[in-house]
Amino acid sequence: MIAAHLPVLQIVVPLVAAPFCLLLRRGTWAWILSSIVCLAALVIAATLLSQVLESGPISYELGGWAPPWGIEYRVDVLNAFLLLIVSATGAIVLPYARRSVAHEIPESQHGGFYTALLLCFTGLLGVAITGDAFNLFVFLEISSLSSYVLIAMGRDRRALTAAFQYLVMGTIGATFIVIGIGLLYMATGTLNMADLGARLPAVGANRTVLAAFAFLTVGATLKLALFPLHFWLPNAYAYAPSVVTAFLAATATKVSIYILLRFFFTIFGPTFAAEDITLQRLVVPLAVIAVLVCSTVAIFQSNVKRMLAYSSIAQIGYMMIGIGFDTVTGLTAGIVHLFNHAATKGGLFLALGCVVLRIGSCQLDDLAGLGRRMPLTMFSFVLGGLSLIGVPLTAGFVSKWYLVQAAIEQDNWLVAVAILVGSLLAIIYVWRVVEVAYLRPAPEGTPAGGIEAPWSMLVPTWILIGASIYFGIETSLNVGVASAAARFLLGVAG
Amino acid sequence: MMDIPGLYNYWIVIVLMMTGFYVVIARGNLVKKIVGLNIFQTSVFILYITMGKVEGGTAPIVVEGADVIYSNPLPHVLILTAIVVGIATTALGLALIVRIKEAYGTVEEDEIFAKDESA
Description:
Shape of chain A: globular
CATH topology of chain B: Helix Hairpins
Number of helices of chain B: 4
Number of strands of chain A: 2
CATH class of chain B: Mainly Alpha
Largest sheet of chain A: 2 strands, antiparallel
Distance between the termini of chain B: 56 Å
Largest sheet of chain B: none
Distance between the termini of chain A: 32 Å
Oligomer: heterodimer
Radius of gyration of chain B: 20 Å
Number of strands of chain B: 0
């Protein structure tokens, strides 16, 4: 009985729990409630993924209205995988949140904080699960509005301007997406994404459809921070509370990439993207520039959080290179990297959150000598850094391996070289942190002895970092699901 | 293509959209940015409302026994949701501006940047 309603429970449980967090007022109770909800969401997502892998896509009719008239929740391999990423991040980040939030956010705002976090969580899951284009926009706005609130809760006053800048850019992006959806509705008279995909070939590539494609692409790339539309991201990540940075870095941009994948492959179809638009000429150059430029900019940052934010934009570039290739290998690489990067970057930002808890800063110079004082935290940072670079036996290596393969398949040696250069640049910015933390002595007058972060924060950090190592060695889950999703999107049997 | 009066609504949409977009980009005053964003969103509301209109169609309320053409109510319903989203965005943006004003003492973008630079 309940099993049949899992798709809608995935959304309804966190959505209903969110206002209760506000009513509970006391931070601890709100935290307990949201932890339980995120765990429940993880269980649901895992069940959905195993069901989909076993018996194919699940369609859920909201309120019993049959699609394409009613809103449909449609779970296939790709979005079941994404639901798992989002809910796992939520479930891992929440145990961590307690100490970190108590440290960074005033007590009176805790209820509001968990409400916003759960709403953001709901929105991201909703974007992933819905099969209706307009519903997607609504969920996108739920997640975006709550993430503006979350970012504005940062301690630094620059968090406010960062949140405002993100609000303006995010709203423009979302409005572009609505315009695109409206134009598609004009052309086809339907909002169901699978139905849109079925009807568009008959309409052909007329001017309305092309304009819709342009609006949807620009809107989604604004949201996922593809170079050169990334200006909101570094400040938003740098000044948001540590928990929020880790959560958003692991989920928000990934969900936006998913939106783009849906638009490109489910609605417009792989041949439209390849032949009428020549996606490759459009996306791949921008993505390559993102990798090179933002990796270079990351080297010159003095704030480690900001450095990782620029590195995120570069990593998004890698994913977009894979997607831009429009081949099974390329898409597999993009989707695998989406997963691997969520684990790696989430873990890195959590490790930084531990540092902020103990020394109250994430300026590079303040990290001097931390390798001795916080050995477990800094070692997890090093391992995460290795995965970011793409050293063998880490998850980062697996995705880059597939990406280089995809580039070579296309005889695109320039891109393959760019990917390797990007990794070399990553070595430099990760090394800067390692050098300061391990080779530079702690400043005069710092008390001796360790200041290791509490277990409640170390364990989630190590789970994510551990995942980014584990999935570099045992690749059957991430690569297996990603290639199944890639073949599904491209409509290739197998 | 020459049907400019017939496409009157769409021309208004484009003019409003570009006006709003320009204000968002070109103005340094945060409140004006929000106003621009609002105009930009409003143009999309009009776009949706316009596409729901069926020529010769009446309001979509069932008329017994008569053979009536109805306008399409779906885009209108959709845009109700988008209006709510727009209000939430505006409210949140203005709330952020209040906090920014408290923290920086100004709502001019260049002055805020200058204060961050010197800090």
